[in-house]
């Protein structure tokens, strides 16, 4: 009878799924559930660590790109300063040449007036000499 009872209990377990009949079975079932939960938590932790590592790598990459762009920006600023200095030097040279040109123009006007005055004096002297 006991063998038949065990046989029917086993069949009942198989038909109803796992049916807990003893405290030991309940404990074993609880341990299996906890193991499954621990495994799931380990998988989630592994995914989270992988995500964290990926974000860290992306952050490192972005920092490298920012440093590269900052370096390029510094180079461009340096080039711009050099070009500004060169432009300022050229502007100074241009201003000096314009000043010299202006002075030469004034001297030319003065010399032309002096020439006209001397030509007038010469013409006056020649006229006087011709009259004498």
From TrEMBL:
Record keyword Coiled coil present: yes
Annotated GO CC locations: cytosol
Source species, domain of life: Eukaryota
Key word Acyltransferase present: no
Coiled coil stretches, renumbered: 38-114
UniProt keyword annotations, A-Z: Coiled coil
UniProt xrefs under InterPro entries: Dsh/Dvl-rel
Gene Ontology biological process terms, A to Z: canonical Wnt signaling pathway
Protein name as annotated: DIXC1 protein
Species, as recorded: Motacilla alba (White wagtail)
Gene name per UniProt: Dixdc1
